[in-house]
Amino acid sequence: MDVRPAQVVAAQSGDPAALAELLRAVWPDAYRLARTVVADHATAEDVAQDACAQVLDALGGLRDPERFAPWFLRIVVNAANGRLRKARRDRTLEPALASSERLSADERIDIRNAVDALDRASRVVIVLRYYYDLKSADIARITQSTPVTVRWRLMRAHRRLRAMLESGAAVAPSFGEQRYADGPQTIR
Known about the structure:
CATH architecture of the largest domain: Orthogonal Bundle
Number of helices: 8
Helix content: 55-70%
Structural class: mainly alpha
Largest sheet: none
Mean pLDDT: 79
Order of helices and strands: HHHHHHHH
Low-confidence stretches: 88-99, 174-188
Oligomer: single chain
CATH class of the largest domain: Mainly Alpha
CATH superfamily of the largest domain: RNA polymerase sigma factor, region 2, helix turn helix motif
Strand content: under 5%
Radius of gyration: 17 Å
Distance between the termini: 23 Å
CATH topology of the largest domain: Rna Polymerase Sigma Factor, Chain: A
């Protein structure tokens, strides 16, 4: 996310041009993270719009402009979870891990399917860590957990991914709506 603290301060002061620039800068990340959680294009757009509207309302309350990114990503995750609770559905993840250029197309598909098979909490920490390159402390703030819990979830997700990829258990693609065994849940 390419947002400078000066942009945040200018937007907080009520500068309409700075606010518009800030929203343009965060929109792609809002959409990507929402898509990670809800997986449906239209729903992800709605969630991203809701999150941006919440940012407009709450931006004045942000005390530390340096912490804008984790604060904003938490708003997106909360909006996505609220949408899932309301709709009572859980769909596939658009994983960030599959974008690695060092992997073949088949390997990227295998990784995507393996990440899709993880529970939602594990998927979210994997995406925040490897796509957004966030540290455990930032992920903890976003997921409203502790850094220790985040590291534990990452370790558990790595083990599950490795096991699935070695056994080939998660390589069959799923078409249409996919529901996870863990069902809708709030990330904590």
